[in-house]
């Protein structure tokens, strides 16, 4: 992120999520000794005061948008897991071509393996968090759907004035649209994460199969890298 001194214009301004809902306000910035922006201090709507990394925020003049932690972390993991896998396969290729010593291969391979295992653990934890967030969205969608139904009933029997009805209807529809979009984005993030993990598992299985074939045929051959296929997951509930 560029180190823009105009970021100070956002101090005291509201922080919105990606769907336009106000979630807090900017209170200050953390700076490095050489004067670069390091983090953002945000007071969230519930009163929680938190230091947020800059990559969780998007600044447009005085407008500040808080990027979903689940989505940003999922994107990082979906990039890192296949990358580490491919690096480990390239390392194995170099070892088989006798371009590095067996000692060096084992040392670096163990390092890659450790990183990959940790990334997979992080992905599993994140997947569970996303599942919980999707469930929350479903609860909110259900509640707003009932609110709309009751609004329609009361308006139909003449207990709510037209102007109040229109205002409430528009408000509920807008929030329903935002929550539905959020749920869709979370489902997509979870699907990408699941398919990345599936690609890694399939890649490991391919690696094992290739090792067996090499022993039988004496024809060394690297396994294909895992292929991540993004297929949108159907949610548990809808409108």
Could you characterize what this model shows?
The protein has 239 residues and is an alpha+beta fold. It folds into two domains: 5-67, SH3 type barrels (Roll), CATH 2.30.30; 70-217, no CATH class. It has three helices and six strands. It has a six-stranded mixed β-sheet, with no helix packed on it. The longest helix is centred in the C-terminal third of the chain and has 56 residues, at 162-217. The protein starts with 13 loop residues before the first strand and ends in a 22-residue tail after the last helix.
Question: Could you state the order of secondary-structure elements as H and E?
Answer: EEEEEEHHH
- The DSSP helix count reads 3
Proportion of helical residues: 55-70%
On the 0 to 100 scale, the average pLDDT is 83
Query: What class do helices, strands and sheet pairing give?
Result: alpha+beta
The share of residues in extended strands comes to 5-15%
Radius of gyration: 25 Å
**Alpha carbon gap, first and last residue:** 38 Å
Q: Give the number of domains.
A: 2
The best one-word shape is elongated
Enumerate the spans where pLDDT stays under 50 for 5 or more consecutive residues: 208-239
The count of strands amounts to: 6
């Amino acid at each position: 992120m560029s180190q823009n001194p105009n970021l100070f214009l956002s101090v005291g301004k509201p922080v919105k999520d990606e769907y336009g809902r106000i979630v807090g306000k900017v209170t200050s910035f953390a700076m490095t000794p050489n004067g670069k922006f390091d983090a953002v201090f945000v007071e969230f709507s519930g009163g929680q005061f938190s230091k947020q990394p800059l990559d969780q925020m998007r600044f447009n003049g005085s407008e500040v948008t808080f990027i979903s932690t689940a989505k940003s972390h999922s994107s990082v993991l979906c990039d890192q897991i296949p990358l580490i896998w491919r690096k480990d396969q390239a390392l194995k290729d170099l070892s088989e071509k006798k371009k590095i010593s067996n000692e060096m291969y084992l040392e670096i391979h163990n390092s890659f393996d450790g990183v990959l295992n940790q990334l997979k653990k992080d992905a599993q934890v994140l997947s569970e968090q996303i599942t919980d967030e999707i469930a929350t969205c479903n609860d909110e969608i259900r509640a707003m759907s009932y609110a709309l139904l009751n609004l329609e009933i009361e308006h139909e029997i003449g207990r709510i004035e037209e102007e109040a009805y229109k205002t409430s209807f528009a408000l509920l529809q807008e929030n329903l649209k935002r929550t539905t979009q959020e749920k869709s984005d979370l489902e997509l993030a979870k699907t990408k994460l699941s398919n990345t993990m599936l690609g890694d598992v399939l890649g490991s299985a391919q690696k094992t199969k290739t090792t067996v074939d090499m022993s039988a045929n004496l024809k060394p051959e690297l396994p294909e890298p895992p292929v991540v296929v993004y297929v949108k997951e159907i949610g548990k509930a809808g409108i």
